[in-house]
C-alpha cells in the first residue's frame, strides 16, 4: 500500500497540481488556510437524507446523498461496542469514512475518484484535496453529531504549503484525552478506501504515513 513518499521528484503531491487557479486566487487560498486550527462552528445538524457531497475540483459540483436506515446501521455497527481508547476509535473512523465514501459513490460520480490528482486521468467524479477535506469533515461531523465519537472532536481542515505550489488540505480531529491533533487524509487513495490518519505535526513535515496508525 502506498504510504505517501513525499519527495520533491517527478510528482508534486499538491491538490493544486495543474490547477486552473490563477496566482491571486491561489494566494488568497493559501492565506486563508494559514488560520489556526479550531473546532467547527455550530451549524444546522446534518440530515441523513440530505448529506452534502462535493467533487470536480474546488467543490465545483455539489450534490446531496441519502443515507438509508440500513446504511446508517452499518456505520453505527463500526463504532460498536464503544472504543476502549482513542487509537481504537481512530481505526474505526477510518473504516466509517471509507463506508461513507462507498455510500456516496453509489449516488454520485465520486465512485470514479482515484487517489491523488493523476492528470490527465480525470473523470467527472474526481476530487482534489479541497473536495476530499470538505467531504471527510462532513462525514466526521455526522459521526460527532450522532454521538459516535467518544474520544475525538472534529476541527476545521488542516492546511500545509511547504512549497508555494505544493499546498494540501485534509480533514482534522483532536484527541480529547491528549489534545493531540490528527489529520484524516482521504486524498491519497481511491474512493472507498480507508483514509490515512497522522499526527498533524508529522503531516506538516510530509512524513510518510505509518502502519501503526493505518493498519491494513
Structural overview:
The protein is built from five helices and six strands. With 216 residues, it is α+β, with helices and mostly antiparallel strands. The protein has one domain. A four-stranded antiparallel β-sheet has the order 3-4-5-6. The chain has a two-stranded antiparallel ribbon with strand order 1-2. β1 (51-55) and β2 form a beta hairpin. The longest helix has 22 residues, at 86-107. The relative contact order is 0.20. The model is unreliable at 1-14 and 16-36 (pLDDT under 50).
List keywords for this structure.
single chain; 216 residues; alpha+beta; four-stranded antiparallel sheet; two-stranded antiparallel sheet; 6 strands; 30% helix
